[in-house]
Design a protein that fits this description.
420 residues, mainly alpha, 22 helices, 0% strand
């Protein structure tokens, strides 16, 4: 009992001091092996290596590389032009184009911040020039950028699948329904709020030219999802296909990148992986220890006596994860919490794929909440705007996403209809 209390105090102090997640996980894992295991701390390395030795983990660097190649190229600008051409005659057309561009590019890059920066660099000045309110423009880009973590291929979905042994292909397919739901809700809000804005004209020549220039980028999500859904290739193989396709399109068709640019992109991706994989190894090592000590099973038994129904569990878990998303980044939350809370959901009869999507949508909201809302911080830096102005701008979109979260939580078929 004393050891557990000491561990909790140490963890709280480390979080309060804003220590790196690798430091926090490293100390927690070493303490667990020392206090509750066989006392051999070197087993951390052995267990971590065994856990990392999985083919599916290859999909993470490959998807990151594909996303970086496309963000450095011209796929984002071509998709934006295509969306603007189709939505020009609709009330709030440019606002709708912003949401749709984020959704499409998220399906290509799999990253929230990459989506925000790639689309925002083009659409933010365009929205202001067209007379859209600054608060709406900032809120829309920050909120629609979060679609990057729910639209497959999504790095958080891969991390969740690895940490809970859930099918990543099923998670990718299950993410489509909630992603469409949130995109439609944001698009409807765009029409309602901006219905009095000046409309453009429906120009067949512009649509044809935009389609000609953007068709290769448009094929990317169809290729990835179509290949996984048809069973033609796995999630890891789809990541390799994404890299090859992105390189081919940007180097030989769009001709936006040369060999020097490709090398620089690979360097950036390697640096990112150098910070990600040590954290992942430590989290997996702790997960192996917790499983060996049967901690999830004990927690399930204890909680099952105190929770009367799946509805109560879902409401309580949503409230808990919403708070977690405000103080932890999504990667850390998944690595630390997913192996613990997933068995609890399974004990309540909740489908593991459905719960995975529910957890990711919950943590998605953390991208828009201070003090650690990553999209807010990125937008503040990229658009040179006041932090609190951006916080206010995302409030209506937070309400929209929370409503979407409730629908996803209590209507499992929104996630599972394609999987089944």
């Amino acid at each position: 009992m004393i050891e557990a209390l000491l561990m909790i105090v140490v963890m709280l102090v480390l979080f309060a001091l804003r220590q790196n997640i690798l430091v926090i996980l490293g100390i927690a894992t070493a303490y667990a092996y020392w206090a509750y295991g066989d006392g051999v701390i070197s087993n951390i390395v052995i267990d971590g290596w065994d856990a990392l030795n999985k083919e599916v983990l290859l999909s993470i660097p490959l998807y990151l590389l594909a996303g970086n190649i496309m963000s450095q190229g011209s796929m984002a600008s071509r998709l934006i032009r295509l969306m603007r051409a189709f939505t020009a005659p609709v009330p709030g057309g440019l606002a709708i184009a912003t949401v749709l561009s984020c959704a499409l590019f998220a399906a290509i890059s799999g990253s929230s911040t990459v989506t925000l920066l790639a689309v925002g660099s083009v659409m933010y000045p365009a929205l202001l020039e067209a007379g859209y309110p600054k608060r709406y423009a900032l809120g829309a880009l920050c909120a629609a950028g979060t679609l990057g973590i729910i639209v497959p291929p999504s790095i958080p979905l891969i991390l969740y699948g690895v940490m809970t042994q859930t099918s990543i292909a099923d998670l990718f397919i299950a993410g489509v329904g909630p992603a469409i739901l949130l995109t439609v809700m944001m698009a409807i809000y765009a029409v309602v709020v901006n219905r009095k804005m000046l409309r453009g004209s429906f120009e067949f020549a512009e649509i044809g030219e935009a389609l000609r220039r953007g068709i290769w980028a448009l094929f990317m999500p169809l290729l990835i999802l179509g290949g996984i859904y048809s069973g033609y290739f796995t999630a890891t193989e789809s990541a390799a296909v994404a890299v090859v396709y992105a390189l081919f399109v940007e180097v030989f068709i769009h001709r936006e990148m040369d060999l020097k640019g490709v090398y620089g992109t690979m360097q950036e991706t390697t640096k990112l992986l150098g910070s990600l994989f040590p954290v992942l190894m430590m989290a997996l090592s702790l997960n192996v220890f917790l499983t060996y000590e049967q901690v999830p099973e004990l927690l399930v038994a204890w909680l099952s006596e105190r929770i009367g129904s799946p509805v109560a569990f879902i409401l309580g878990m949503n409230a808990f994860l919403l708070v977690v998303g405000c103080v932890m980044d999504i990667g850390s939350a998944i690595l630390i919490l997913a192996p613990i809370v997933a068995p609890l959901a399974d004990a309540q009869g909740i489908d593991p794929v459905h719960f995975g999507i529910m957890m990711i949508v919950n943590l998605e909201i953390g991208y828009l909440t201070p003090p650690l809302g990553l999209n807010i911080i990125v937008a503040m830096t990229a658009f040179k705007e006041d932090f609190w102005l951006i916080c206010k701008s995302v409030v209506p979109f937070l309400i929209i996403i929370v409503i979407g979260l409730m629908l996803v939580s209590f209507v499992p078929q929104l996630s599972l209809f394609l999987v089944e």
